[in-house]
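Record 1 of the preview.
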Amino acid sequence: MEKSLEGFKGIHPGFILERELQKRSIRPAAFAVTLNTHRQIISAFIKGKRGLSIPMSLEVDQALGYEEGTFALLQVYYEIEQTKKPKDTPKPDLKNMRKVLFWDTNIENINWQQQYKAVIRRVFERGNKREQNEIIRFYGAEKVKKVLSENSLKPMTLQII
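->
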């Protein structure tokens, strides 16, 4: 089992469960019924918004025919990776950013350094002047100009800088 899990270390087990359910053509709601739990719990787990308890992981293992403890180990590997991540990474002043701008994700969980291109694109496509100025302050005008020009955003947007 160790070797087969090696490639999944650090990946949220909900992602793995989602792939497995898709592969087997099982809907998450139907899987929740199989486990005798609420579909919202399975949905939150698949989206990475919650972890998997040991009792629930054993039920998932049994329902999918995995070796006992597989999903518990995946959860532990994920938590280890999360613990290793630096906690004090710089981020823009979130008081100047509307949370609705990042409606599809938790703004507190954005990796501002790794996902800078997506952040810059989104703020300059959908953000207001204050949010755009905060992104320019945070990343610097040159970095913002480069990302915007790579993505062929409207010249009007580029004049903001």
